Structure formats: structure tokens, C-alpha cells
Amino acid sequence: MPAWSFHRGFRGGLQKAAKAALDPDGIISRGWARSLRRFSGKDGIVEYAVNAKGQGSDNLPMSKTERRFIHDTFEWLDRLTGLSFVQASSGSTADIRVNCARRLGGSDGLAVRRQGRFDLYWKEQKGWTLTRYEQHVINHEIGHALGLDHPDGRGANPRYDTKDTVMSYNWRGNTQFTTTDVQALQQLWGV
Questions:
Q1: Whole-prediction pTM
Q2: pLDDT on residue 181
Q3: Long-range pairs for 18-23: beta carbons < 8 A, 24 or more residues apart
């Protein structure tokens, strides 16, 4: 099963090359976007589920703050793109399921394309407290489900960091989708 894994260790200390503007095409994964289109029935309505109770092995329950952050992100994306995001009545019917994980084998986040849905995971960092880094990882994994890729296919590409795209592993404090991310999402899904 194809999966994107968000690895720790790229938070700082990288030497950056001369700053180059990131073309939105450099973070688009048309294959993942096609999968979401297929999963959602090609109608532009994407059902998402938040695994609030932590059902399943190695999943943890989510705090109210974590759940609210995820819902707010999908509401914002609903206004931003030509997609309509609705909360699924059940995790089994969702196109995207968001999970909080106890451990992810060396990764801080993971997007897995399964038969008929995406399962997104982020590794709990500080218990019930939602850290800025966790916000970044959650948005990064949601980006994968919506068809975004790492900059030029490399998460640790030293030319870019999280101020250029939420899809970078090179953490620089940004937690939100950037202008480049928005441009890429709107190229894929309209406005």
C-alpha cells in the first residue's frame, strides 16, 4: 500500500541553498488526487471521520482541542477549494479517516492509501496538548490526502521549508497551508 511517512529529525540545522520560489506543480501528486476523486464518488463531496475515541490498535483518543483543530481545517479547506467536506456518520464510510497514534515506527505522521479511503495518522507528542508541530503534521497528512506531495518529491529537500509549503519536512515553525499550498489545491480542486 502506498504511504507517505513524515519523519522526525528535520526540525533544524539544515543548510539552505539559495531561496527559489516553489512552483505549485512541484507539490502536486495527481495520483493521490485521482484516488481521492475516486474514493469520494467523483461528486466533489469528501466525507471525513475523526477517530476521537482512538478505536483500533495503537490509536489514542483525541482531546477536544485536537478534534476542533481537524474540523476547523476541513471547514477552511471547504471554503478554499471546490471540494465540499462533510463529517461522515461512520468511520467505515469516510473517504478520509484521521487518527492519533501512540507510535508510528520512527515517523511523526503517515498517510496511507487503502482500498476506498485514506487513513491519516499523527504521533501524539504531549498528551492532550496539541502542539504547533502536531498541527503542522496533521495539515501535512491532510495535504497528502488532497493530492499534495513533498517539494519536488523530497520531504527533506533543503531548498524549501515549512514557510514555503506545509509539505516540507524542514520544520521552521509554520503550522498552516502556505500560499503555494493553496495555489496547488486550487489547481487540483478549483475555487
A1: 0.89
A2: 97
A3: 19/159, 20/159, 22/151, 22/159, 22/160, 22/164, 22/165, 22/180, 23/180
Domain of 116? 3-7+20-189
What is the mean pLDDT, run by run of 10 residues, along the chain of 191 residues?
A: 47 42 95 96 96 92 96 97 95 95 92 95 90 97 98 93 96 95 97 86
**Residue 165 and residue 179 in contact, taking contact as beta carbons nearer than 8 Å:** no
CATH (domain of 164): 3.40.390.10
Q: What is the pLDDT of residues 62-85, one digit of tens each?
A: 999 999 999 999 999 999 999 999
* Nearest alpha-carbon partner for 148 in 109, 104, 94, 115: 109
Whether 42 is covered by a domain: the verdict is yes
Question: Is the residue at 12 inside a domain?
Answer: no
pLDDT of the residue at 127: 83
Is 15 inside a domain boundary? no
Q: Which helix (H) or strand (E) holds 114?
A: strand 107-114
In a domain, 148, yes or no: yes
* Structural domains of the chain, count: 1
Angle between the 132-145 and 30-39 helix axes, to the nearest 10 degrees?
80
Q: Quick one: which of 157, 177, 168 has its CA closest to 16?
A: 157
Decide: 160 and 168 in contact? Cβ < 8 Å.
yes
110-125 pLDDT tens trace: 999 999 999 999 999 8
